[in-house]
Amino acid sequence: MASHFSNDGAPQKNVGGGSYSRRDAERYYANRQNGPERHTGRTVAIVIGIIAALVLVAGATTGVMLYNSAMTVKAEASELMAQASSLKDSLKNGDSDGLASSVDTIVEKTALINAEVHTPVWDVAALIPVVGEDIRSVQTLGRVATELVNEALVPVSSSLSGMKLSDIIQDGSINVGLIQALASSLDGAMPVIEASIDTIAELPEAHIPQVAEVLGSVQEPVREARGMIENIKPILDVLPQMLGANGQSRSYLIIAQNNAELRTTGGLPGSWGMVTITDGQISLGEFSSILHDPGLRVDVTTEEVHATSVDMGADPAQVNFTPDFVRIGEMAREYWIQKGYGTVDGVIAIDPVFLQRLLALTGGFTASDGATVDGTNAAKVLLSDTYWKYGSDPDAQDAYFTAVAGLAFDQIMGNLGAAGMTELWDAVETSGEDGRLLVWMVNEDEQQIMVDLGLDGSLETDPTKPVLGVYINDDTYSKISWYTASKTVIGEGVKNADGTTTYDVTTTITNTITPEEAYSAPLYVYGNNEDKRDNSDMLDIVFFYAPAGGTISNLTANDGAVFSNYGIVECSLNGLQLFRTRTHLLAGETATFTYQVTVSAEATEPLALRTTPLAQESLMQ
User: Fold this and answer.
1) What is the SS3 assignment for 19?
2) How far apart are CA 556 and CA 135, in angstroms?
3) Distances (CA, A) of 214 to 46, 76, 101, 207, 485
4) H helix intervals, 35-130
5) Residues forming a β-bridge with 21
6) How far is residue 179's CA from residue 158's CA, in Å, rounded to a whole number?
7) Tell me: the pLDDT tens digits for 27-86?
8) What angle do CA 198, 200, 202 make, to 5 degrees?
């Protein structure tokens, strides 16, 4: 092999018709010797190996060099993949040191890979007809990855420098500055992120099957990343103002729903209290009950009164007979103002099961009576045990609940920062999905964030997204709802000639209390509605809401489950058809409802279900 000198005086070797400097050759052989083969890079090796095999047709020497270069890429890709996993773990666990280390390694590996796939041997291969297009796609991926890492990942991670992600929530406060820093970094990174996503999405379809598989596996996560960023960005922009940034205090009304006495959105809104946030510092006021207080009156429509069977505007106890949390928020805020407690920027409803989920992340505490309250039993303690223990002494109940609420708040806010961010988000997301965490905001931009997060609890009015509503409201005047079980089964949809789809649906409601429990329980537990036939009798008002643009038909109940003088009443609310009935079930009895739900021809999704979150998760299906 003949040698000659390049313009800079460095000796070169003529390989397969191409000229390379000694520096290139030394780097090539060093990489070849040092690049470890990893199983996790197998796909990359297969793809590049096939490309190399095809290139051999054009030139044996070039093909050998490309194959050896592919081995270098394979080794670097294996380490890059390992660091991507470490990066995810660091973000999940709030490990800023681990995050910085992973980012440094990712920067190094993406640079090496990008440099390797842009060496002359790859450029030569890119000229081969048909196959060359796949080579150029691989080179594009290398370039885009480098840009994403250097111009997006590095700036965002640098904004976390010196801080742990666990510092977002610590000692009863939220680090607003960290959130603002993240928002600012993401603002700066958005142009390159969007451009990179567009470039990857527009790559041509590959000719080599293995290359097509790799491109597909990259493009799908990129599309998901775009959606994630589009969801996160508005939240980061609005969240600081919601947390009282720059000394602009925000106040929120917290309503604790008691699922032992069911209401449509969860339970009796027994305890009301206010949380104030200034620059992320959270202050919890005292909780109290404003139920049945005289002189209160908020506006409700005639349709709302007729549909719900109660006057929600005359008593805060009935405010959540409607499933529309937007209306609940509006009415609750007005009740709070009328009581003289001041205005609020939003209303948040929680229940003991949501509280239990948070305690599972932060650890439990010991209540004043010596009971341990934690992530395994908080709902049972608050929704059952307390009433059996203090059922004949309401004052003792109130004192106990107040003490437990304070201890729970201190435990959660003092330790939530140590929880994994992924686990925290899972708890919030799950609680939004099953209605145990609902939020209404006065500010329209902030309310839109609640909608995007699935925490708004509003009635679905889009016929393309059909939702059946099945809701239960206690009418026993008791805490017997602890023993309520409910299950709704939606069958396979049948397409109709007019484009609509009809589903057969069965809903069952069961009273799981035993006669022995009913006759040994305090009056507070089994209830004093004069329509009760014995201590075990469970009375409920049940609602069936049709999906937007759809209907419910042929609704029937088994004999004896429904009050004969009440029947099944058809109404409407906000343009939705609904049926209302009143059940009574003795210990062990079940009410079975069968009906058909027909969804609009515009529906693009299967029929979904929204239902009242019960006291016991195990009894809810």
Assistant:
1) strand
2) 65
3) 10, 16, 27, 12, 48
4) 42-55, 60-93, 96-116, 120-125
5) 12
6) 13
7) 444 454 444 444 445 555 555 555 544 444 444 445 556 667 666 766 766 666 666 667
8) 70
